[in-house]
Give the backbone structure.
Amino acid sequence: MTCVLPQRRVVELQPGLAQVTGRVVPATPPLRAPISSRPCVYYQVIGQNHAWPWHDRLCYPTTEICFWIDDDGARLWIVVPPSPSSQSSLGAAQTGASIQCSIGGQVVRRTIYAGESPETDRLLEPPGFPFRPDAYLEAEERIVAAGDTLTVGGEIIEEIDSRERAPDFRHPPTRMVLWARSLGSAGA
């Protein structure tokens, strides 16, 4: 079941569910996509493994990712939590804590073989099963890069902003944060 989130401007945000569109502004040094080594703020790899051909593989970064969305000068802090499993089957049910994203834009296709690198080896191995020495994966990689226009959906919360100074102890500085549940529509 897909939930349609209301489209909002950053300046209009209140706590609750929302979807925001804007330009991606990095908050940290770039990640390197595991297949192409392209600099990015986020990536998605989809592929089929010949050893387990009955299901496709889906892989995202294994750590929490943070970046900004700029909507005509108003910025929103985006937090993308790590997926419950760095590798899950496509079509898995979405829960409140999981991420499902379909990133548009340029795709890089490549066959990945066992032993190329630790980053690509983790794409080959399903949880709980070692990969075969002759394993390979027909993979497609998509990225979200700095400057891309991106639509992000999720839960908006208000939190204390540790980067700012409080006028007094009763009024801590706050910022709006979107905890992403989906990413989409990335493009230049």
Q: What stands out?
A: The CA atoms of residues 46 and 58 lie 5 Å apart. The helical segments are 118-124. The radius of gyration is 18 Å. The chain is about 5% helix and 45% strand.
